[in-house]
Amino acid sequence: MRSLIAPISSLLGGVAFLLLGHGLLNTLLTLRGIEEGYSTGLIGLLMSGYFAGFLVGTWLAPSLIRRIGHIRTFAFYAALASVVVLLHVLIVDPWVWLVLRVMYGVALVTLYMVIESWLNAQVSGEKRGQVFALYMAVNLGSLAAAQQLLSLDSPMNFTLFALAAILICAALMPITLTRQAQPAQPDMPATDLLQLARIAPLPLMAAGISGLTLGGFWGLAPVYASQSGFDASGVGLLMSITILGGAVLQWPIGLFSDKHDRRLVLLWVVAIAAVIGGLITPLTSGPLLLGMMFLWGGLAFSIYSIAVAQMVDQLHPDEILSGSSGLLLANGFGAAFGPVIAGGLMSFFGPKALPVFFAVTLAFLALYSYFRSRRVFDLVTEPHGHFTPMLRTSHTVLELMPDTPEGEIAEGDTLDEGQQPLDEEEAVELRTGTHP
């Protein structure tokens, strides 16, 4: 393990500081918005600004990284993110905040992309899976730990905003001190959502609904917790418990999905998460609510990972990277709309509308999964994809996925012994679900 971590320790240290500051800021802004008297609909719009900037930054970042390099790009956007954090508390105006949230989203996805492309260049093919798992553990652990920083001071004071900016600036130190050579920035994989919808409609829908649901969680869960009777430290506890559920329960769910029909596993995970969302609705602050949020987080955070694994089962190996990029895009669009929809519902119906939103969106996905699972056929390939716990970061992290090929299949590759080739018509039938 030491030999695995040592070459990438500076990158992992950078992302840990970055996510501590980012996780603190996201919840802090929601709590400050509540104190300022912003409606839940307006808070939802502000949180959506971040996801909109995230999508824009996905297209802007590669050209800048190619032009000025990884370290200078990271320094530029870390400085921009820190400035944006401090401007939130210096100019307390919702429409200024909306612009700042878009800018912050652009900055964060670029920072993700720098770190992840660097990780890709530092690890060999046989270690990608271990590094991917370690990287996601650092992500989830930092986001969960960041919520506990909320208890240090009131959201109305300058302290927590300054701390978030300090943590993001601190991410610069291990990154700029590294002696590792800067890698070349790979081209963004081409994405054809229409083609992906024809080949793997269930994973695409699951990725989009996962983004919609978790976008609502990240943006409005602090409002829900606050209006349900939690103080600032209690809000942080609820967020941490939910994130930890996502970190802990993904592993057993993933192992189960690798050994059983993944479509049915997805159906049951989504259905149970929808039921739990309904059961949360009448609850108020207390241990039972925290326990239910732990379970819900474990199930809801697994949906995107199951969708990626299911997509791997349905695509040719040389299509996996572009397909994963398509799922990431669908998830991002869902996340951009989730806070707006959830915030609007909470404005009309109160805090209980958030768990109802979770229940309804996931129930829709469960129904779609039920009817679609009888029409979707896996492309029979060996080996099948494996479940990998993951968060939506940037498209660059997809290169680290254990099931993503490092290069396209070359002409002349041979089939395994006993494997029968498919003609073009049979392959199309299998991939589109029309094969009898």
TrEMBL record:
InterPro entries: MFS, MFS_dom, MFS_trans_sf, MFS_YcaD-like. Residues 405-436 are annotated as: Disordered. Residues 199-436 form the Major facilitator superfamily (MFS) profile domain. Pfam families: MFS_1. Residues 405-427 have a biased composition (Acidic residues). The chain crosses the membrane at residues 39-62, 74-92, 98-119, 131-150, 156-178, 199-220, 232-253, 265-283, 289-308, 320-341, 353-371. Keywords: Membrane, Transmembrane, Transmembrane helix. It comes from the Bacteria. GO terms for cellular component: plasma membrane. The keyword Magnesium does not apply. The keyword Transmembrane applies. GO terms for molecular function: transmembrane transporter activity. PANTHER family: MFS TRANSPORTER, TRANSPORTER MFS SUPERFAMILY. This is Predicted arabinose efflux permease, MFS family. It comes from Stutzerimonas xanthomarina DSM 18231.
